[in-house]
Design goal:
CATH superfamily of the largest domain: Vaccinia Virus protein VP39
Number of strands: 12
Number of domains: 3
Strand content: 5-15%
């Protein structure tokens, strides 16, 4: 991943889009590299434009096919992403048409397209003349902004809720904070925000939560260095209360990094015998260490593959286990729009197999009478209700502890859809070992 030699806002934005769509890179990684070259204001614009292209990609590609006779190849492929960015600016942003065309053509030259500047200028001007921004597809898949495979899976799983689900997936996500009850209280922190002139809202279902109404850099918020709060979506904030750890218990948080749920467990329950936070990625555990230090909390961090018990388990069983299983992350697409293009249909079956392997292995480490909470940030039933239903049928000692009314072995757990009470998409099921 090599950034353009010359620093240019639109060239860097097109480079990020290219890295995700053509190279399969995470937007988090590409954005961090590109944004480091720009001011805070320009970095925010870069992210807004790139994420907007990911959200509207199917429609942008239709316009591209109408105006570009032959696809660009090789080193010129990145110029298609410059054009997509130009379309997005004209159709969906507040950038003036003139600025969008002129600056985007200049970006093309920086990205090696000097010989094609005339072509790109003509395409963007034709977009204006033909008023293509007013001509959007009536195809529901195109309108959804999702790949066909994912749209079809969602339509099959949620025929009644599909419109609401798609709307939630395409709305920008709010920033949620979770007040660290070991260092502060929600009322005290609300007062601190009010005194700083920062607007916020509260959620009746989340006693530790604050929903930010103003986009303020997190590190500049009151009490950041003192560990008064963490950033954590409302759906993820339900994990610790559902686990309901008690003093004296031994707890496992599996796939724990970067540590938001572990921290919440520790904040809610003093006097735990032990909390082991397990994750397979050392770099993510390093970040977790930093987060716990800021919050003035402690856990035993273990870097290991959860599916391979012999590599990390000492044979002592746990009272409670939180399994935040590896998943498709389809529930957080509104927060990370690049997921829709990085994830492939074939990935789901692979993830299902891994989820079930981890679940069945961890079940062996749970004490009789213990509780396991299974969680994903997915909205696909194959990863959620399907997994737990199968597990209950294959493990007679597993009992479903209902989270909400109406749960059955066939439809266990709680599925949260994106946008529900302003939360991300998430799934929870709670199991008791007899």
């Amino acid at each position: 991943m090599k950034l353009p030699a010359k620093v240019d806002l639109r060239a860097d934005t097109a480079w990020v889009i290219f890295q995700v769509l053509e190279q399969g890179k995470s937007s988090r990684e590409a954005l961090a590299m590109a944004q480091a070259r720009h001011s805070k204001q320009d970095a925010a614009w870069l992210q807004e434009m790139a994420m907007g292209v990911f959200r509207h990609l199917p429609q942008l590609q239709i316009w591209l096919r109408e105006l570009l006779e032959q696809p660009l190849k090789g080193s010129k492929k990145i110029l298609e992403h410059v054009i997509l960015l130009g379309f997005y600016q004209q159709a969906y942003s507040r950038v003036s048409d003139h600025a969008a065309v002129a600056a985007t053509v200049n970006a093309a030259e920086i990205l090696g397209g000097k010989s094609l500047k005339g072509l790109i200028n003509a395409i963007l001007r034709n977009f204006q003349r033909q008023q293509l921004a007013e001509q959007v597809s009536d195809n529901p898949i195109i309108q959804s902004g999702l790949p066909k495979w994912l749209y079809k899976r969602l339509a099959s799983a949620y025929p009644q809720e599909l419109e609401t689900l798609l709307s939630g997936m395409n709305q920008p996500a709010p920033v949620w904070l979770r007040v660290n009850q070991q260092q502060c209280t929600q009322p005290v922190y609300c007062n601190a925000l009010t005194e700083a002139g920062i607007r916020f809202a509260l959620s009746e279902a989340h006693p530790d939560a604050i929903i930010m109404l103003d986009r303020t850099p997190i590190t500049t918020l009151p009490g950041f260095a003192e560990g008064w709060f963490s950033v954590q979506d409302g759906a993820a904030q339900l994990a610790a209360p559902l686990l309901d750890a008690q003093p004296g218990e031994r707890i496992l948080d599996c796939c724990a990094a970067p540590g938001g749920k572990s921290a919440h467990i520790l904040e809610r329950t003093t006097g735990l015998a032990q909390l082991i936070a397990l994750d397979s990625e050392a770099s993510r555990l390093t970040r977790m260490t930093e987060n716990l230090q800021r919050l003035q909390l402690h856990a035993n961090l273990v870097c290991a593959d959860a599916a391979e018990l012999d590599s990390w388990w000492d044979g002592n069983c746990f009272d409670r286990i939180l399994l935040d299983a590896p998943c498709s992350a389809t529930g957080v697409i509104r927060r990370h729009p690049d997921i829709r293009w990085l994830r492939k249909s074939a990935d789901i079956e692979v993830l299902q197999a891994l989820q079930y392997k981890i679940l069945t292995n961890l079940w062996r480490t749970l004490k009789p009478g213990g509780t396991l909470v299974y969680a994903t940030c997915s909205v696909l039933p194959d990863e959620n209700t399907g997994q737990i239903s199968r597990f209950l049928q294959e493990h007679s000692e597993a009992q479903l502890q209902a989270i909400q009314p109406g749960e059955t072995i066939e439809q266990p757990g709680r599925q949260i859809l994106p946008g529900e009470q302003q939360m991300d998409g998430f799934y929870y099921a709670r199991l008791l070992k007899s």
